[in-house]
Amino acid sequence: MQPAADRRYVLTLSCPDRTGIVARISGFLADAGAWIVEAAYHAEPEENWFFTRQVVRADSVPFDADELRARFAEVAAEFGPETSWQVTDTAVLKRAVLLVTKEPHCLHDLLGRVAAGELPVQLEAVIGNHEGLADIVRAHGVEFHHVPFPGPDAPDRAAAKAAAFDEVRKLVDVHDPDAIVLARFMQILPPELCTAWAGRAINIHHSFLPSFAGARPYHQAHARGVKLIGASCHYVTADLDAGPIIEQDVIRVDHGDTVADMVRRGRDIERLVLSRGLRWHLEDRVLVQGNKTVVFH
Amino acid sequence: MQPAADRRYVLTLSCPDRTGIVARISGFLADAGAWIVEAAYHAEPEENWFFTRQVVRADSVPFDADELRARFAEVAAEFGPETSWQVTDTAVLKRAVLLVTKEPHCLHDLLGRVAAGELPVQLEAVIGNHEGLADIVRAHGVEFHHVPFPGPDAPDRAAAKAAAFDEVRKLVDVHDPDAIVLARFMQILPPELCTAWAGRAINIHHSFLPSFAGARPYHQAHARGVKLIGASCHYVTADLDAGPIIEQDVIRVDHGDTVADMVRRGRDIERLVLSRGLRWHLEDRVLVQGNKTVVFH
Amino acid sequence: MQPAADRRYVLTLSCPDRTGIVARISGFLADAGAWIVEAAYHAEPEENWFFTRQVVRADSVPFDADELRARFAEVAAEFGPETSWQVTDTAVLKRAVLLVTKEPHCLHDLLGRVAAGELPVQLEAVIGNHEGLADIVRAHGVEFHHVPFPGPDAPDRAAAKAAAFDEVRKLVDVHDPDAIVLARFMQILPPELCTAWAGRAINIHHSFLPSFAGARPYHQAHARGVKLIGASCHYVTADLDAGPIIEQDVIRVDHGDTVADMVRRGRDIERLVLSRGLRWHLEDRVLVQGNKTVVFH
Amino acid sequence: MQPAADRRYVLTLSCPDRTGIVARISGFLADAGAWIVEAAYHAEPEENWFFTRQVVRADSVPFDADELRARFAEVAAEFGPETSWQVTDTAVLKRAVLLVTKEPHCLHDLLGRVAAGELPVQLEAVIGNHEGLADIVRAHGVEFHHVPFPGPDAPDRAAAKAAAFDEVRKLVDVHDPDAIVLARFMQILPPELCTAWAGRAINIHHSFLPSFAGARPYHQAHARGVKLIGASCHYVTADLDAGPIIEQDVIRVDHGDTVADMVRRGRDIERLVLSRGLRWHLEDRVLVQGNKTVVFH
C-alpha cells in the first residue's frame, strides 16, 4: 500500500505553444492549493508545440482526482482543440500484460522487478506462444495463457496466425491494460492491433535503431563489425521497428565477441532498456509527438 | 555576434519552498510577455528549498535586462529574505581567467573550445607558475602572466608563496571574472582566496571524489585496484577537494593499465568533465545549496 | 548438456615473471596438439609477476583433464615454488551457494540468469536470514535454508550470531562450493569464514569503492552530492569492503534523486556488477594478486 | 626522447589459423631472449584466421630491428603465403598528415594532444581547403597548405576537384605518412586515393555507423528521435562511410537537444573517438580483416 503522503496526481499535457501556458497551469494549481513536487516543460521550436508534466501531492488538493480533472478540463480547453492531456492518480495501479515466446531473460527481469516492488504496475497476465515459461509466471502468482502460433510450414498459415492474434487480442483486451509489453515476443503485430494498442504496445528491439532493424540484429551487427551493440525500447507502430523510441542504450563489444557472445551480452542491455522504458511509460513520463517522444525523467 | 533572436535572459532563483512560487514567477513572466524557452524546477524536500532556472527570449520582453531585474526584485522580495536570485543577459559574455602549471591538456582543450566557439566566454587571461604554456596561450590571442611559485626547498617558502598568491589575486581580480578556472593548477588556494572567489573558483580533480582526494590520485587508484578512474569538477572551498561537486565522470581501466596509462587516459575524462562543468557554470545552470549543487541541464 | 565441440579446458597460472614462460607453455600445448581458442597474458612490472589464462578445445587433446594436469604439473614446477595454477574442465559445472536477507533484486536476477542458462553454474542452495524469499527460490527448484540471525537487541547477541554463522557454514560447506555469493546479505562475515572461503566468497557492495564503504552507502553518496553512484563486486576479506575488486560500474544521478531513488536506481547497477563479477569468477577469468585482481575478459 | 628502457619492437601478424602458431612465435622470441611486455591473440573461428600482436623490450634483444625482421621472416614463411606481418620500432616515430576544412574541433584536439605528448606521432603537415585554421597550425610549428576546392556552382567542377585532389595527393605523399587523417575533411576521397592510401586513411564520421551514413547525420538523428548520438572512426574505402570501423562511442541526448545542440555535444565524442582510433592505429593495435578490424587494446 502506498502511504497517503506518497500519493500523487500526475498531470501531462501537450498543445500548440504560446506565451502564458505555464502561468495558466501553475496559477490553476496554486489556486487549488496543489503542492508541486515535480514539474517539467518542453517547448519544441520546430513544431511550435508545448509539453508539460506536473506532479502534485494528492493530500495537498482539497478534492479528488475526478474533481481535479473536471476543473482542469476548463483550463485545457483554453489551449485549443489540439490539446491532449490527462490526470492520473498513483493510488490507481497501472495494468500490464506481457507477450513472450521462448526467450526468458526479459520476462524473468520484469517478474523480478514487479516482485521487488520496483515497477508501479499490476501484472495482469502473460501470454506466450510457447509453454516453457508458464511455470515461472505462475510461481509469481500471475496468469499465463498459452496461445500457439503456426510454424513456418503450417498449412493455411496466414489464417492460423490471424486466429492466434485474435485470441491474443481477446486475452489482452479483457484487462484493458495501460501497457502491452512485447518482451521479446518475436511476432510482428498485425496493423489492426498496432492501431488498437497505439501508445500502449511497447517493444524491445535488440539493436541500436535505426541500425539493424528487422531479423537477427546481432548477426547484422557482427557482420558489420560495430564496436558497440544496443537495444531500443519503442512504441509499436505498423512500420516495423520504426515507432517512437522511448529509450536506448549500448554496451561495448570487440573482435573477440562472437554472435553468441553478443546475444548473451546484449541481454543485459535489453533488460535495462525495456525496464527503464516501461517504468517511464507507467509513470506518465513519455509524451509522443509524431514519431518521436518527449521523456521527462 | 549573437543574432538578436538568440539573445536570452536567464533567471535563476532559490528560496524556501512553499506553494505558489511557480505560479507567481510564471505569472510575472507571462504578464511581461516573456516567451519561456527553457524552464526547470527543483524542490529539495529535506531542506524544503526551491530552485528554478528560466530562460526567456530577450526579444519577447518589451524592456531591457535592468528593467527586468528591477521589476522582478519585487517578486523575489515576496519569497523572503533568504531568497537568492539573478538575471543574466546572454549578450553580455561571461569572463574567465585560467590558472595553470605545466600540465597542458586542460588548457589546450579549453583554448580549442573557446576558439571553436563552443564555450560562451571571454577568456581574459591565463596565469601560470611556469612559462612553458605561454606561447600557445598568446598564439590564441590571450594574455599570459608568469607568476613563479617557490619550490619545495625555497628559503622563506611560506612568505614567498603568499606573495605569489597576492600577485595572482591582483592579476585575476582586475578582470572581475565570473569564473576562475584551476585547469590542473596543482597549488592549494589559501583560505582567503577561497572566500574571495567563492562560487567562482572551479577546480578539476583527477579522481572520482570523495575517493582519492589530495595528492597523486592515480597512484592511489592504481594501488587500490579500482576498475574505473574518474575526474570531478567542483567549486573550490577551504576544505581541500571537498567543495560542491558540479560534474563527475569515469572511464574503465583494467589490470594492464599502469599509473602512467591512468594518467594519460584520465586526461580524456578530465578535459570532458572540466569543460562540461565550466559550460554549465557559465550558462547559469549551477545553483549551490550547502555543499551540493543543483545542475539544470 | 554442453556439446562436445564446446567443451574446454581452462588453464590459469601465475608465477614470478621471466623470459620464456609463454614459449614453454605454448610449446607444451602445441606438443599436446591442443587447439587454443583464447589466450591472455599479463606481466605486472612492479611485482615482476606473470599471469596467463589459456583455453583449449577439449576434443583437441588426446587425453583427459587429469592427464593434462599431471603432465602440466611438470611444466609448472619449472617456474618455481611460488607458482599457482589450475586446469578446469567446462564439462564439470561450478557450484554456488547464495546468502541473502530480505533485499530480493540480486537474488531474482541471479535466479533468472541461471534459469536462462546465462551463468555456467549449478545453484546448490540459497541461505537466508529471513524467510521471505524462500518461495521464489523453491519455485526455481533450488534448496532454501532459513537461518535466523539475532536482532540488534537480542540477548547474548554475539553468541547467537556465532551460532547462526556456524549453521550457515555447515549448510554452505556441505556443497564445497566454488562460489559463495553474498547477494546483498548485509551481515559481516566473521574472520574465520573470510579465511575459510578466501577467494570464493564474493560480495556486492552498493557503492563505488573505496568511496562509501560500510553502512548506508547511498545515504553517504546523497549527503556528499556525487553525480554518479556505483556498485563494486569484490572478494570478501576480513577487512570490511576492502577486498580485491573484481568489477565496478556506475550510473548517473542528479540533484533530483532522493536516497530512495538512488536505492532503486542503484539496484540496476548492483545486479549487473554482481552478475558480471560472478560470471568471470566462474569462468576462471579472475586471478588475485595481493589485494588486486587480474581479470581476463 | 624515448628512454632506452621504453623502446619496444612491436610484432603484428595475421595468417590462416592452425595449431602451434603461438608456440612457434613465442619459441622464436624466447630463443632471441626477447622480453615480452604485451601479448595478445585472436582466433577468428568463422574465417579460421589467426591474429597476434607482441611487444618486446628492444633492449632485451641482442640485435636491431632489421635483424629481427630478417630472422622472423623465416618463421612467418612457415605460416603460408597469405601471412601478413610487420615489426615496428617505437624509436621511429610514425608520421601523419591531417586534412581539414573549416570545422576546427578535431584539429584543435589533435594539435593539443601532439603538443602534450599524448600521441606517438610526428605531425608532418596539415592541408586545408580553407585558410581559417592556418594560423593555429603554424603556431604549433606545423606546415599548413591551403588547397582550395571548387564550390558547388564552380564551372568545370569535376575537373577542378580532380586537380585539387591531385595537389592534395602530392602534398601528402611527399611525407610517405603512416596515417592520413580526415579530421572532419568533408570531401569524399576519389577511389584512386582510397586505394593508394588503403589502411592508412582514417576518417571520423559523426554518427554511430551504420546509422546515418552520408550527409548531415545529426539532422538524420534528430529526425529519427534517437536517444544516443555517436561517432565512428574508420578506415576510408571507396564505399562511403562503410570502411572497417576502428572505434565508436556514443553520448546521451534527449528531446530538449536541437540539431545545433547535437552538433555541439557530438564534438566531444568525435574528438575522443578519432583520437582513440588514431592512437591505436599508430601503436599498431589495429589489424584489418576484410571489412572488420581486430583492435588489440
From TrEMBL, chains A, B, C, D:
Residues forming the catalytic site: D241
Q: Name the pathway it acts in.
A: Purine metabolism; IMP biosynthesis via de novo pathway; formate from 10-formyl-5,6,7,8-tetrahydrofolate: step 1/1
* Recorded superkingdom: Bacteria
Q: Which UniProt keywords apply?
A: Hydrolase, One-carbon metabolism, Purine biosynthesis
Q: What is its EC number?
A: 3.5.1.10
According to the UniProt entry, the coiled-coil residues are none
Give GO terms: molecular function aspect only: formyltetrahydrofolate deformylase activity
The record places domain ACT at 10-86
Which BP terms in the Gene Ontology apply to this protein?
A: 'de novo' IMP biosynthetic process; one-carbon metabolic process
The record's top EC class is hydrolase
Q: Which PROSITE patterns match?
A: ACT
Q: Which InterPro entries match?
A: ACT-like_dom_sf, ACT_dom, Formyl_transf_N, Formyl_transf_N_sf, PurU, PurU_ACT
Q: Which reaction does it catalyse?
A: (6R)-10-formyltetrahydrofolate + H2O = (6S)-5,6,7,8-tetrahydrofolate + formate + H(+)
UniProt record similarity statement: Belongs to the PurU family.
- UniProt xrefs under HAMAP family: PurU
Tell me the function of this protein. Answer: Catalyzes the hydrolysis of 10-formyltetrahydrofolate (formyl-FH4) to formate and tetrahydrofolate (FH4).
| Name of protein | Formyltetrahydrofolate deformylase
- Protein species of origin: Pseudonocardia bannensis
Output the lineage of the source organism. Bacteria, Bacillati, Actinomycetota, Actinomycetes, Pseudonocardiales
